[in-house]
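Something for you to look into today, if you have time. Could you write out one complete protein record for me, on any chain you like? The space below this message is yours for that.
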Amino acid sequence: MTFTLNAAEELGIPEVLLCMTSACGFMCYVQYPYLIEKGLVPLKDASYLTNGYLDTVVDWVPRMKDIRLRDFPSFIRTTDPNDIMLNAALGEIERNHKASAIIFHTFEELKRDVLDAISPMFPPIYDIGPLQLFDNQISDNGLNSIESNPWEYEPGCLEWLNSKEPNSVV
């Protein structure tokens, strides 16, 4: 997500983006403007979702031979030219050009061809994966309580809340 670019610009500091999508996924997002320009997206109507249209091969994507429309991130599967997710993806890709560098969660031996194709289009790119190998390198168990899963919760909060009078907590 590129929302941090504004803060970095305001503070006059370099902004390095961490791209958690695959390098191939990123390259697909880069193609969104071309899909629109060539009239492949947005879909003409909902029947295009089931009539085989998504099997259309897109033969111009650098280093991604035989990729089909169905292989692209699903934001292209819309009939609405004003679709919020399609337009957000377009904006995100455009803003990536403003970063000082982009880090990909992959390693060169796995995605060399695609990384080589992305490299001349964007600021310096770096591959630093696989990041999950670092998971066991952190020995501070105090960090274990920090989670980013919106579906999990800290049970202690509910215990505290349940100990209060109804309608007394904002």
In short: The domain at 3-132 is CATH 3.40.50.2000 (Rossmann fold).
